[in-house]
User: What shape does this take?
Amino acid sequence: MNTSFREIQINTTKRRELIDVTQELLMAVQESGIKNGICVVYSLHSTSAIIINEPERGLMEDLLTKVEEDFPRGRDWLHNRIDDNADSHLAGAFMGPSMVIPVRDGSLCLGTWQSVFFLELDGPRIGRRVVIEILGE
Assistant: This one.
């Protein structure tokens, strides 16, 4: 089995923001030379998430609105006694830091309307790190 490892850095400009990382993943798979296997995408931050969804502007805003509704800032979360970002930690824990995407014939197996997003939950931040590892033959 072959493996390829890459890390990308992402700068965010808003507290909650979706950043499309699909092109970076496609490049990583292509440059890996791996034709069939899996691509693991993993955020190294507990106040972020990796999601797959449609890159339609209205839907992206709806996703951010839903995160705000389910994990409101300013609520009396216990973690806010230490750091004022409990909502970000909770959203990240429920949404998850990673995705595994099949690789077939040297490309990601994504549906027609699917893209991969880094979801910033506690920005703006400089140098958010996302690991991309491709495993296969």
Q: What stands out?
A: The domain at 2-136 is CATH 2.60.120.460 (Jelly Rolls).
